[in-house]
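User: Show me a protein chain along with its predicted structure.
Assistant: Here is one chain, sequence first, then structure tokens.
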Amino acid sequence: MKAAVFDYRSAADLADAVQRLAEGDGRAKLMSGSQSFGPMLNLRLARPQTVIDISRLPALAGVREAGGSIVIGAGVTHAAIEDGVHAPLREHPLRAVAAGIAYRAIRNRGTVGGSLAHADPAADWMVTLTALGAALQLRSPRGERELALAAFMHAAYTTDLADDEVIVSVRVPAARGGRWGYYKFCRKPGEFAEASAAVWQAAPGAPLTIVLGALDGAPQALPALAEAIARDGAAAATRERIAAAVAAALPERQPLDCQLHAACVARALAQAGWTAPVAVAGAEAAE
């Protein structure tokens, strides 16, 4: 299929994009990398009256350090992070996450902000940035606001983003000295994840975060399991405790789904140094 008729506008700058989006009165949509939005247009799942191109805005393309955080522009591509284009992210765990997103052709065009705005439950950035405790900077005609990513996604493809708001940037911890792991299960590399999990601890003694991804909706944390492991170490990260925590968090999922998510948690914990890896049988998993 081909897209329904729409008006195309190229934003001159960020202020112009915000103004045009507001003038659209809910019938305008932003386009950046268009790796998700483009197919939705062609399938006519999205039928905006106006498409506003923000793919060439310098204000969305930078990465900078701010205190103990790194601020990533919403227009930064997955490939730019993978290739170490931006110095603050060259030693950051997000570089490995970026390298595992879909295929290189997708990574060349897809953007961090576009992925988050699309809010696909299986997407890599949603689960990993939630685990890191990331926050979004949003701009609208009413001004700017910061929103924790954990509160951003309400359901599949449904977010707290207002019709006239633009994602400007994502703020993440610098991650120096932190313990980190991310694992996703795919039938083959490049496909959508069927299960995923990310873990993060900023420093020894700091709270541990364990988050499940590739669910029916927003990522889901496992706070009780995380607290036990942070307190008792690898002794609390047994297969049985992980499986029980996942089953309790996903009571309506099939046993196989729970098993896949539990394996992803175990492998993410292993990457972070908490326990030994658990084999995933019967299919190929992508890190």
